[in-house]
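Posting for a labmate who doesn't have an account.
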Amino acid sequence: MDAIAGNYSLGPDSGGRLVIKTSRAGLAAKAGHDLTIEVTKWSADITVPDGDLSGAKVTAELDLGSLAVREGTGGARPLTDSDRRDIESTMQKIISGTASFSSTRIIPSGVGGAIEGTLTLNGKSQPVRLQVSTPTPGRYRGAATVVQSAFGIKPYSGLFGTLKLKDEVVAEFEITLPAPA
């Protein structure tokens, strides 16, 4: 992982994307959908001193009121626009406000590496590790598994508990570093 020294400000307007992927469980899992949910309002700041990624600092702020269902796969029938609206309304009842991330350590490794840090969500903070790859210079992709219950969030459950979301969700990002500020 290479980077040019500088300060970088990122978000959806700079071509970055942040999604959360859910999967289903329970006896009625076939009836539900695995969802791709986009965080449409977020910002991140990256500071890279002297071009040394191991000394970089990453912070991010996510507006959880901006969650938008982008895709639903599987299920007994295709996901409709009405389903999307219902899911988004339910998400707002379960989770709202903001989430934040602050790195504590960057571990460069060849064409990838890891970013370790603290995720604060729903008033609780937990360590998290993002695995990162660099498919092309200046472009970064990463993912981390987040356990909802570790943040006091009860995963969605319906149909008398026979359809539910797995406790683990995957947060994925893709960014391209712009010219340093």
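Reply:
Got it, the structure tokens are right above this. Residues 6-176 form a domain with the Lipocalin fold (CATH 2.40.128.110).
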